[in-house]
Write a sequence for this structure.
């Protein structure tokens, strides 16, 4: 379903993704693990037509995201790592917008919106503006929205960041369910090793833009001679703490925070 | 198509929810009408050009159209900021639809806002020469708003941060306004300024509106309309190129 060969992305001097190759089969749950700044999100952005790779080939269901952008966009759904909601709209309106974008028929859209908002306990607050939501609620809405249409491939970029265990559990149960009933291929990144251990069929560990190990959780543990995935991860990537490079949007984000009271 | 509609609706919803913005953006036009309209009125009169309020009201209406539509286009920058842009960019909708949806949304808001300013002008004593010309004026307002909303989207697609926004404001939007003849007649201008006003697309918008409202235009309305339509096509084409290239 996903095929990536020698994928490289450079931002000026910095090589964010450095000759990465992997393959994800249809109906597989594939996890990308790596420290901050390892190149996980950049890889997802290239697969989801948001970034142009510097070199290498990539394919989604046999289509090249660089050339067949619109066809590829029809294939996947994504939950982003950072916020992507319209905070001036209500929760319901955000769902509506997404449903229209993804050509979900009106009736199905209304039913699914209700089911998902109930599942993630947002139904009672559906007519409130997202602006007034707490961080966790926003996150839940992002996830509910990402699940509104049924894509062939689901990208989840650190979906559980900042979520309570209950919601995490809901999410992974639902993802597993989708994977089993609709053969949805899932590509996820996370910092929580237990999640990867629980849901992923195969795991790739990426560091400094390169894949350092790939295999099932069992294989990775065997390969490093460790007892848990967490230990295997640390054995493979070392224990130094990484800093993510600030991107161009960061200063802007601060500015927006400063002005958010008197804007609009 | 439904994507265009839902994006248009989104802009409208956001607009109707920000009442303070609606009121705030009436401040500047009112200031122009009061300070300049009444302040420069006597001088204008003595120069034999008639009532300055009559003359400048279409200019102030154009100003509202320009600012509101360009800003709503630049709203793209906020969407980039708050992340919503990503949601639209990965959607299986041709980017040109997204761009058109935004442009129409911005243009609609600008026309609503400008209509409020028309009312303010009427209260201040502005009198259109004939009521029958109001529908024409309304259509012209739509056209002007569309041109500059398209420009705003083109700019918004190419900007990365707020510093760039200031640059655009001071070196593009303000000059477009001040060189448009919104505040002074286009005849008998010194050479350089005359050229500058000719290449300012808003000059033709102001001219057409003035023609429709008070029957006084420097060019002809039909010429203004053709030129604005051509500029709209150009801005849309540029905006499309810019928008297709966005990476986040």
């Amino acid at each position: 379903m996903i095929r990536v060969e020698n994928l490289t992305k450079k931002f000026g001097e910095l090589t964010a993704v450095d000759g990465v190759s992997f393959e994800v089969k249809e109906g597989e749950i594939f996890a990308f693990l790596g420290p901050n700044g390892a190149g996980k999100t950049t890889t997802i952005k290239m697969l989801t037509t948001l970034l142009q790779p510097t070199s290498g080939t990539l394919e989604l269901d046999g289509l090249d995201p660089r050339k067949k952008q619109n066809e590829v966009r029809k294939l996947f759904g994504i939950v982003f790592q950072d916020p992507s909601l319209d905070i001036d709209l209500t929760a319901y309106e955000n769902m509506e917008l997404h449903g229209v974008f993804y050509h979900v028929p009106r009736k199905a859209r209304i039913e699914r919106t209700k089911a998902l908002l109930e599942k993630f306990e947002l139904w009672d607050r559906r007519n409130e503006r997202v602006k007034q939501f707490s961080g966790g609620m926003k996150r839940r809405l992002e996830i509910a929205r990402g699940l509104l249409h049924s894509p062939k491939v689901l990208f989840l970029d650190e979906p559980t960041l900042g979520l309570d265990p209950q919601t995490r559990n809901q999410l992974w149960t639902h993802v597993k369910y989708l994977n089993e009933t609709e053969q949805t291929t899932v590509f996820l990144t996370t910092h929580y090793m237990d999640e990867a251990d629980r849901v992923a069929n195969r795991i790739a560990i990426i560091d400094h833009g390169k894949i350092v190990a790939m295999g099932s959780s069992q294989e990775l543990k065997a390969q490093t001679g460790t007892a848990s995935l967490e230990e295997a991860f640390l054995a493979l990537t070392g224990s130094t703490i990484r800093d993510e490079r600030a991107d161009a949007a960061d200063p802007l984000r601060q500015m927006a925070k400063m002005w958010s009271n008197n804007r609009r | 198509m439904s994507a265009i509609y839902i994006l248009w609706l989104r802009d409208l919803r956001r607009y109707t929810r920000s009442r303070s913005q609606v009121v705030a953006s009436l401040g500047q036009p009112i200031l122009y009408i009061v300070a300049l309209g009444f302040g420069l009125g006597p001088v204008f009169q003595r120069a034999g050009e008639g009532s300055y309020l009559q003359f400048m009201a279409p200019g102030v209406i154009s100003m509202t159209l320009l600012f509101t539509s360009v800003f709503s286009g630049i709203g793209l920058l906020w969407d980039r900021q708050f992340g919503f842009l990503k949601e639209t960019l990965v959607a299986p909708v041709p980017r040109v639809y997204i761009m058109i949806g935004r442009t129409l949304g911005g243009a609609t808001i600008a026309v609503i806002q400008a209509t409020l300013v028309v009312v303010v002008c009427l209260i201040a004593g502005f009198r259109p020469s004939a009521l029958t010309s109001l529908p024409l004026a309304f259509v012209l307002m739509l056209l002007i708003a569309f041109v500059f909303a398209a420009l705003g989207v083109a700019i918004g697609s190419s900007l990365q941060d707020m510093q760039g926004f200031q640059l655009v404001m001071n070196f593009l939007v303000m000059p477009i306004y001040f060189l448009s003849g919104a505040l002074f007649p286009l005849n008998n201008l010194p050479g350089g300024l005359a050229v500058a006003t000719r290449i300012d697309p808003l000059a033709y918008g102001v001219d057409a509106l003035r023609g429709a409202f008070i029957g006084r235009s420097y060019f002809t309305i039909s010429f203004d309309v053709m030129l604005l339509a051509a500029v709209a096509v150009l801005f849309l084409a540029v905006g499309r190129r810019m928008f297709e290239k966005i990476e986040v």
About this structure: Strands of chain A lie at 2-11, 14-24, 29-33, 55-60, 76-79, 153-157, 185-189, 202-207, 210-215. Confidence is low (pLDDT under 50) at residues 260-264 of chain A. Chain A touches chain B at residues 45, 48-52, 70, 73-74, 76, 78, 80, 82-89, 93, 96-98, 100-103, 129, 248-249, 251-253, 255-256, 263-264 (CB under 8 Å).
